[in-house]
Amino acid sequence: MRVVIAEDSVLLREGLVRLLADGGIDTVAAVGDGEALVEAVREHDPDLAVVDVRMPPSHTDEGLRAALAARALRPGLPVLVLSQYVEEHYATELIGRGAAAVGYLLKERVADITEFLEAVRRVAAGGTVLDPDVVTQLLSRRRHGQAVDSLTAREREVLGFMAQGRSNTAIAGRLGVTEGAVEKHISGIFGKLGLGPAPDDHRRVLAVLAYLGHT
């Protein structure tokens, strides 16, 4: 796998390069601003871009804008965005442009090397990864009548795992319940959110993310 990293902190940038290398992943470019990211994508045609949201010069949303520009340059480019804080607007905008092959993680998740590398590989393979804290905040603010409020605590938990791209088997293992119980919770979630049945796990995740990201 070939990755481009865009992160203005030299320390974190080099740390990401080292983490990816230890996981057998090749970083073909590591840059410090959005313009350099777009140029690196044009030059190297990577399998994934790992991008910080806030980058020079204003340290607001340059990283996200550059990620969207890179995806416009190379449609379908997998992008994993890293953020210091839960920034709903940016997460929603990224998801709203197409939920396939995108991820949004808080930087603190990088400390869990196994989870971070798993997220990198999942996004590069076309999956979706959304930080659990982002899911919680989106759910707490998103309103569609009283649909979201009607979800039980366990249904919210299951929905969070679905947004991370977890399979029914993985969710069951995390929660210590049967797959049948997970399927029942998922059925309840989609019923309450007014989403039609979709037998494919990936499509169910995309439906949830599209719902959360819709404004």
TrEMBL record:
The protein's name in its UniProt record: DNA-binding NarL/FixJ family response regulator
Positions carrying 4-aspartylphosphate: D52
Matches recorded under InterPro entries: CheY-like_superfamily, NreC/VraR/RcsB-like_REC, Sig_transdc_resp-reg_C-effctor, Sig_transdc_resp-reg_receiver, Tscrpt_reg_LuxR_C, WalR-like
PANTHER family for the chain: TRANSCRIPTIONAL REGULATORY PROTEIN NARL-RELATED, TWO-COMPONENT RESPONSE REGULATOR
Response regulatory domain boundaries: 2-122
BP term (GO), one: phosphorelay signal transduction system
Organism per entry: Sphaerisporangium rubeum
Keywords assigned by UniProt, alphabetized: DNA-binding, Phosphoprotein, Transcription, Transcription regulation
Molecular function GO terms recorded: DNA binding
CDD domains assigned: LuxR_C_like, REC_NarL-like
SUPFAM superfamilies: C-terminal effector domain of the bipartite response regulators, CheY-like
All copies of domain HTH luxR-type, residue ranges: 144-215
